[in-house]
Specification:
Helix content of chain A is 49%, strand content 21%. Chain A is of the alpha+beta class. Chain B has two domains: 73 residues, Rna Polymerase Sigma Factor, Chain: A (Orthogonal Bundle); 81 residues, Winged helix-like DNA-binding domain superfamily/Winged helix DNA-binding domain (Arc Repressor Mutant, subunit A, Orthogonal Bundle), CATH 1.10.10.10. Classes of the chains: A alpha+beta, B mainly alpha.
Chain lengths: 250, 172
């Protein structure tokens, strides 16, 4: 056997992938060739170091929970986009129990009127995460979502298409909170959801202000006679980016 | 979804979730993308339980994970993770010789970085071989490449790794 032939077989030799006959040939060659022997030692050590050194990750519990939850989802048989949303929803539902108890604490802790609206919005957001509560009209097409609100609320909400910047449209729904019928437009971001609430107001325009509560961020602002709230568990920089993009698109 | 199918899925797919996630982490180099890809893969596996043959559940699942990773990667043209070229720059320059002792002395971070810096087609075979400890035949099944190609990719991948693990100062 020549060195070049041996060299090609060394990896397979180190991996135990050679036949007994081929192994015998490599053994014979390596016994008399220092270069190939050194090469083999390098390969074996490299392989061993990689096996010992490379990280074997453990799947996060939430990932398994999400997968298990989606097993029970009836929408599994549907179109990809629908089961995607459904899976996301069911997963979110798992968090609702925890979040609800957190809300109770918030409600007990604060009794003032200023936070009443904030609490309504946050409660509505969390309720929307329960299976079946997110959308009345599920569509990633703004031309399906926007007309759906006609005659249902006192304004025609802005439904910009933000897919290209990573916020796919999920759908829309009607909600009633703090004495207002609100149009809610829902966007996604990876596994997170963003609810955008809007209803008419007679108050002056106001720049976006942020409230953070139990891991949820609420951004509210007023623009041209419309009160808007965007709520998500998304990181604040991303939610701010969303709000900026949303406002630009109006 | 029948109760039977769900039970089969739980028995066949869920035991390999760590493998699936690990493979996706190495392919995508991003934990969130890896989670998304594995969730997609699990659902795809569930819908294609009928395509599963007895035995070799892990290779079957890893092949699905790989497809989901490729799909996701295509979707993320503007990849957030560092490009191999950038990672390579942080590695010691290539030199004439690497011996077993130098490799043995490499720390884990360096190993990890060297693997992450490999081109996709090399990185996947190295991970399948050294982390998941699959045979050439199984790697061929996961990647769709013939066994001969698997062998030569592995050899070239290790060549690169050995070169990049050579210490900057030659140990005497």
């Amino acid at each position: 056997m020549r060195c070049t032939d041996c060299f090609e077989l060394l990896n397979a030799y180190a991996d135990g992938e050679l036949t007994a006959e081929q192994r015998g040939e490599v053994d014979a060659h390596v016994a008399g060739c220092a270069e190939c022997a050194r090469q083999l030692a390098t390969l074996t050590t490299l392989s061993q170091s990689l096996r010992e050194g490379l990280v074997r990750y453990t799947a996060p519990d939430l990932l398994e929970a999400r997968i298990r939850a989606s097993l029970e989802s009836p929408a599994l048989q549907g179109t990809p986009s629908r089961w995607r949303v459904a899976a996301r929803l069911t997963a979110a539902g798992l968090l609702v129990a925890i979040a609800s108890s957190a809300l109770t604490t918030v409600a007990l802790r604060r009794g003032d009127d200023n936070s009443a609206l904030e609490q309504s919005v946050l409660t509505s957001h969390i309720r929307s995460l329960m299976p079946g509560h997110l959308t009345d009209v599920a569509s990633n097409n703004q031309h399906n979502v926007k007309p759906w609100f006609n005659g249902r609320v006192d304004l025609s909400p802005t439904v910009p298409l933000l897919d290209s910047v990573g916020f796919p449209l999920v759908g829309g729904r009607l909600d009633y909170l703090a004495g207002h019928a609100a149009a809610v437009v829902v966007y996604g971001r990876r596994q997170h959801l963003i609810n955008v609430y809007s209803w008419p107001t007679s108050r002056d325009d106001a720049a976006p202000a942020t409230i953070t509560d139990h891991g949820y961020h609420l951004v509210h602002w007023r623009d041209g006679g419309v009160e808007l709230w965007a709520v998500s568990d998304l990181g604040l920089p991303e939610l701010d980016a969303f709000v900026a993009t949303f406002r630009r698109a109006r | 979804m029948s109760h039977n199918e769900v039970a089969r899925f739980e028995a066949i797919v869920l035991p390999h979730l760590d493998d699936a996630y690990t493979f996706a982490r190495y392919l995508l180099r991003d934990e969130h993308d890896a989670q998304d890809a594995v969730q997609d893969a699990a659902l795809r596996a569930l819908r294609h339980m009928d395509g599963y043959r007895e035995g070799d559940a892990r290779a079957w699942l890893l092949a699905i994970v790989r497809n989901c990773c490729l799909t996701l990667r295509r979707k993320r043209r503007d990849d957030r993770s560092p490009q191999p070229a950038e990672l390579l720059e942080r590695l010691p320059a290539r030199g004439p010789s690497t011996d077993a002792r130098a490799i043995r002395g490499s720390d884990r971070a360096l190993l990890e970085r060297a693997v992450q810096a490999l081109p996709d087609e090399f990185r996947e075979v190295i991970v399948l071989r050294e982390v998941h400890e699959l045979s050439y035949k199984e790697i061929s099944r996961v990647t769709g490449a013939p066994v001969g190609t698997v062998m030569s990719r592995l050899a070239r991948a290790r060549d690169r790794l050995a070169a990049s693990l050579r210490p900057t100062q030659e140990a005497s």
